Each structure stands twice: as structure tokens, then as C-alpha cells.
Amino acid sequence: MRWLIPAAGLALVGCNVPSEFLQRMEAQAKYEYYETSEFWADGKAMRTPPAGTVPRERAVGNPGLTTGRVNGALVTSIPLELNRQVLEDGQKHYNIVCAQCHGRLGDGNSVVAENMALRLPPSLLQLSDKPDGHFYAAVTEGYGVMPSFAGELNIQERWAVVAYVRALQRARNSQAGGQQPVPQENR
Predict the structure, then answer these.
(1) Which of 37, 41, 63, 91 counts the highest number of beta carbons within 10 A?
(2) Angle between the 155-173 and 84-93 helix axes, to the nearest 10 degrees?
(3) What is the rounded CA–CA span in Å between residue 115 and residue 43?
(4) Distance from the Cα of residue 91 to its chain's centroid
(5) What is the per-residue pLDDT for 30?
(6) Contacts for 11 with CB less than 8 Å, ≥ 6 apart
(7) Are 86 and 160 in contact (CB under 8 A)?
(8) Residue 165: pLDDT band with limits 50, 70, 90
(9) Would you give the DSSP letter of residue 123?
(10) Domains and CATH numbers, the chain
(11) Burial level of 182, CB count in 10 A (0-12/13-18/19+)?
(12) Using an 8 Å Cβ cutoff, are 175 and 181 in contact?
């Protein structure tokens, strides 16, 4: 059995493998933007997209739903029917994606936040004056040092997270037994 690995190595060395097969990516031919190319009849390396092509960055359909903006302005209300299932989905996805930095309660207190050197994640509870589209756009596009989570959360999941953040804000800012909530700086 010991001889099997060295024998396999010798067999590979002895193979007549074309150099294109083992070519490394950094050694491959490539073109820079607007560079000329002899391969194409028009001499351009950059290709014009076919007619009717829609770039993936362009919002198709309801822009308020897909981007959180309408005519450049952030939407002020969640464009989904809110119900218990949406909030439960929002809680689930918030706890998976957002709570590591923003804390389970949305207050910005987390182990990750304690170890961040550049800028601490904000308390989402203190951002209740921001429109719903602000949170959606931040999750979709990223914000500051926060990356985009559009690859991890689909449109409905992102809006569900926004709905859950709003529920956290309302719960934190609501009156408990007729008393005003204790401001965070007085804790």
C-alpha cells in the first residue's frame, strides 16, 4: 500500500499532459478594458452585450420591493403583508446573519462587536427614525464595514429581517407597565 502513492505520482509525471491543462490562471492571456483584440472582427476585446440584455444590477419589477427605494427615495413602509410567519422568519434570519454583530436584542452588544477595532456596529434600537428602506438597503448593499447579505438572504427574507428589527425597536421603546424605558446610557 505504501508504494501506491509514489507510483501514482510517477504515473502523473510520466503522462503527456498538454501545458494548457496545467496552465495557471495568472499566466493566462487576458485583456484590459478597451484593449484591442485580433480575435474579434471589430478589433475590440470588450464585447457589446446582446440587444435586450438586462444587467443584474438593475431592479426589475417593483423597485420599492427589490431595492428599498422608489425614484431614489428610501421607502417608508415594508412592502410585504406582515404576519406572524414573516416576523418568525425575520427573527430566524436576523439571529443567523445579523445578531453576531448587532446583538440578539439589536442593541449592538455582541462578542464580535467587542472585538471590532474600526467601528462598532450601531445599536439598531437607536435608529428607529430611519425609514424601512434604509435597513433593507443596508442589508442588500452593505453599509460602512458591513458587507452585503444579498447573497445570503433573498428579497422576502431581507424584508422579514427589517420587520423583525422594527419589532425589536417597538418592544424596546414601548412602555412597560406605564413606565418609560430606561435610556441605554443610564444602565
Answers:
(1) 91
(2) 100
(3) 52
(4) 17
(5) 80
(6) none
(7) yes
(8) very high
(9) P
(10) 82-173 (1.10.760.10)
(11) exposed
(12) yes
HSE on the CB side for 15, CA within 13 Å? 11
Q: Say which DSSP state 7 is in.
A: H
What confidence score (pLDDT) does residue 186 get?
42
Nearest alpha-carbon partner for 91 in 161, 153, 27, 26: 161
| pLDDT confidence tier of residue 17, bands split at 50, 70 and 90 | low
What's residue 48's pLDDT?
84
Report the alpha-carbon distance of residue 32 to residue 39 in Å, rounded: 14
Residue type, 49: P
Contacts of 93 (CB under 8 A, 6+ apart): 153, 157, 160, 161, 164
DSSP letter for 49, please.
Answer: P
Asked whether 150 and 139 are in contact (CB, 8 A), the reply is yes
C-alpha dihedral (74, 90, 96, 186), degrees to nearest 10: 80
For the chain, what's the residue count? 187
> How far apart (Å, rounded) are the C-alpha atoms in residues 141 and 147?
7
**Grid coordinates in use for 16?**
503527456
